[in-house]
Design goal:
The chain is of the alpha+beta class. The strands form seven sheets. A four-stranded mixed β-sheet has the order 8-1-14-13. A hairpin with a 5-residue loop joins strand 4 and strand 5. About 20% of the residues have low confidence.
């Protein structure tokens, strides 16, 4: 039990709506802008503003592409199924529901993750500072190349490299990569190609990368682990794109919710409310499928979509606190010990320990090679496993074997099982629901003579704190010290390359100095 994020997707979800909702909850806009400045991607700017949706004040997050990178797929006003009703609701304009993912070899449409494709009006990127404007007429019959832009493609390896090179936390990188992985798998299933062959138009990939990275940075900044997503609400009809007419929900969204096991509710409203990126975000961070029986609301954030439908396109996000039992019913919380020789922790109100449900999957194999097992572990972590272990065991007939244990959230079970069945020789997987207690944690950023470093600090039940330097930062300092000029540091003890232990101690001292 503890603080958690609740995403109320009663009128859909898209990438820009999700980012806006988290910013409205209190995620640092300054930290977000610093993170986006570090992206090795050009041709965009972001605008954060306040807008009114059905009379409600909401946050708007907009990715504006410059003229050289402008995505004309967005500008082509493709018509949603629903005819006059949709035109009436949009003020006479046409909805642009086309997206920009394509399989590189086949070149056909793969409905992808551009939020402005599904929620924006007309030439939104040319008028990004106007949140309501007249529809813009456009010739629907011209070809994409007629705009005079040479559109390169980015595949998953290129997108992964961009994210890994960004100056964001390891957790934010992992979340962003997980989201893109979900999108790629969904598009691959929709079009019958391997996930590593799904490519994105360069101009489309820019705003998709910005949306996904922005969400990951904001989510990481809020410091929450548990996320409740009960369902996604979607509209009806069809969306006409450059390569044909697709039903709503579009195939990519259908595959995302099917893989993640997220319930989908269809509203009696024409239009597309759930985008592939929005669905992938929900699938990537969802750890619970139901709200607690009792909870209090700490903060509320509203993220605005760009379209006007019969229902307001708003994503409401809440930070909630599950209500604990009364102290009289909880001897630990009240500080009463069951026995003097038992080690128990009293819970301080300032130290909100989080309890959450987690799942353990396990299987036993006695005929897998070491190479196959190593590859499987990499695949499990890439797919979102919280932890994975290989335990040596003896099976029947005294055969040496390995027990593979995977820790994951409930929504990741189908993906984890698919990886285990695909890459090991197991024919059965056991599932065990587990409860866990999680200490409050925060990330620290410190400066050292050899560059910046990160550490994590947890708060123990008695209020004491424990700080641990991040391994990647320690390793980076060791490597930096090997090439740093001697005059770069003044301390005589730092006139030579650091050992791992010395770099670890250096980060630890800097982190502890922050507290002092």
């Amino acid at each position: 039990m503890g603080r958690m994020l609740y995403l109320e997707c009663a009128s859909g979800i898209s990438g820009d709506m999700a980012v806006a909702a988290l910013l409205d909850l209190g995620a640092s806009e300054e930290r977000l802008r610093n993170a986006l400045d570090s992206l090795p991607v050009d041709g965009f700017e972001v605008r954060v503003s306040r807008v009114k949706k059905s009379g409600l004040d909401a946050c708007d997050f907009d990715v504006v592409l410059d003229s050289a990178h402008e995505n004309h797929d967005h500008d082509m006003a493709y018509l949603h199924g629903g005819g006059d009703e949709v035109a009436r609701l949009s003020g006479g304009g046409l909805d642009d529901g086309c997206a920009h993912a394509h399989h590189h070899e086949h070149g056909h449409h793969a409905h992808e993750s551009d939020e402005r494709d599904h929620h924006a009006q007309g030439h939104h990127h040319e008028h990004g500072h106007h949140h309501e404007h007249a529809p813009h007429e456009h010739d629907h019959n011209h070809e994409h190349d007629a705009h005079g832009h040479h559109h390169e493609h980015r595949g998953m390896p290129e997108i992964e490299a961009i994210i890994r090179d960004a100056d964001i936390t390891d957790r934010a990188k992992e979340i962003a990569l997980r989201i893109f992985g979900i999108i790629a798998r969904a598009e691959a299933k929709a079009h019958g190609v391997p996930a590593d062959q799904v490519h994105f138009h360069e101009v489309g990939a820019v705003d998709s990368i910005v949306d996904v990275v922005s969400f990951a940075v904001c989510f990481d900044d809020l410091g929450l682990d548990d996320v409740v997503v009960e369902r996604l609400c979607e509209g009806r009809g069809t969306v006409r794109c450059q390569h044909g007419v697709l039903p709503v929900p579009v195939p990519a969204v259908s595959h995302v919710v099917a893989e993640a096991g997220i319930p989908l509710s269809i509203m009696d409203v024409q239009g597309e409310f759930v985008t592939p990126t929005g669905a992938a975000i929900a699938a990537a961070v969802r750890t619970r499928d139901a709200l607690p029986a009792r909870f209090t609301v700490e903060r509320i954030g509203l993220g605005a979509g760009k379209r006007e439908y019969a229902v307001p396109s708003l994503l409401r996000a809440m930070i909630i606190q599950e209500e604990l039992k009364k102290e009289s019913d909880n001897p630990i919380a009240s500080g009463r010990w069951a026995a003097s020789n038992e080690v128990r922790f009293g819970l301080d109100e300032a130290c909100a320990i989080s309890e959450a449900h987690i799942w353990k999957l396990e299987c036993d194999v006695d005929d897998c090679t070491g190479e196959a097992l190593g590859f499987t572990m990499e695949r499990l972590f890439t797919a979102g496993a919280r932890e994975a272990h290989f335990m040596p065991i003896y099976m029947k007939k005294n055969r040496p074997a390995w027990q593979i244990q995977v820790i994951c959230t409930r929504d990741r079970i189908p993906t984890m099982e698919a990886e285990l069945f695909a890459h090991t020789t197991t024919i059965g997987i056991r599932r065990t629901p587990m409860e866990r207690t999680v200490l409050p944690r925060e990330e620290l950023r410190v400066s050292t003579p050899f560059g910046p470093a990160r550490a994590k600090r947890v708060t123990l039940p008695d209020g004491r704190r424990r700080t641990t330097p991040e391994h990647d930062s320690v390793q980076a300092l060791v490597e930096a010290s090997e090439s740093a000029p001697k005059e770069a540091v003044s301390d005589d003890t730092l006139q030579r390359p650091l050992t791992y232990q010395e770099a670890y101690a250096l980060v630890l001292r800097a982190a502890e100095a922050l507290e002092g």
